[in-house]
Amino acid sequence: LVDDLLSNIVSCLPTNEAARTMVLSTRWRGVWAATPLLVDDAHLRAADGPRDFHAVRAVSRCVAAHPGPVRAVRFIRTSFHRQEHALERLIASLAAKKIQDLILFNRPWPINMPLPKDILRCASLSRLYIGIWNFPDIPTAHRPAFPNLHELGLFHSIIEDREVDALLAHCPKLKILSFAIAYISRSRLRIKSSSLRVVMEWGCSFDEIIVEDAPCLERLLFQSISDRR
């Protein structure tokens, strides 16, 4: 089989099985290295021992061992409590290896953990979903933090309303924006974006949603807490 087809096969395997193909032969070792990396914490959990510690360490080792780029990293079953430094190093490594798709949920708690500021250095991201974090302050800068981001989801996270404005300003290509049980100060969501097409909100405590300037907006989907009563 040609290398491109082998690479497609490897990309469909669970993370640990994909890495094990390196032992098959010298050629297969090169195939794994040439395949954009996809890491899922569900594939790397230990049967015994501290589950969260193992998952963070295993993902970090996979990213460090792979030359890049990193196609996707998914944390949906891991708590980062007391693993802040390991997470900071991992996010910095993902930024350096051009991460494209990141799902980062801090489960189950605490909700007030700050998301590492190096997340703003992941300029190659096209898709970002975060859950149960306190979003970092976004500096005012001329260069967008997320110039290639098309899809953004904030779940059960805390972010200042002024930071939403700054975040949208740093995402010039954003098309889909989602909020679920998110917490924003003063409960006001202001939408100002020249690229947004879809905004979805579920279970948030917004008192007010203002579409200030969104010429491409096609859908505004929302269900407030009061609507469900």
Q: Largest beta sheet: what is the strand line-up?
A: 1-2-3-4-5-7-10-12
Q: What's the helical proportion of residues?
A: 25-40%
Uncertain segments = none
Major β-sheet, in short?
8 strands, parallel
Oligomer: single chain
Give the N-to-C terminal Cα separation. Answer: 58 Å
The value of Rg in angstroms is: 19 Å
Shape descriptor: globular
SSE topology string: HHHEHEHEEEEHEEEEEE
Structure characterization notes:
This protein is an alpha/beta fold and 229 residues long. The chain has helices at 3-11, 15-20, 26-34, 51-65, 84-96, 161-169; strands at 37-40, 70-78, 101-106, 127-131, 151-155, 158-159, 176-180, 183-184, 188-192, 198-202, 208-213, 219-223. The strands form 3 sheets. Strands 1-2-3-4-5-7-10-12 form an 8-stranded parallel sheet, covered by helices on one side. A two-stranded parallel ribbon has the order 6-8. The longest helix is centred in the N-terminal third of the chain and has 15 residues, at 51-65. The chain is globular and about 60 Å long.
Set out the fold topology.
Elements: H1 3-11, H2 15-20, H3 26-34, E1 37-40, H4 51-65, E2 70-78, H5 84-96, E3 101-106, E4 127-131, E5 151-155, E6 158-159, H6 161-169, E7 176-180, E8 183-184, E9 188-192, E10 198-202, E11 208-213, E12 219-223
Parallel strand pairs: 1-2, 2-3, 3-4, 4-5, 5-7, 6-8, 7-10, 9-11, 10-12
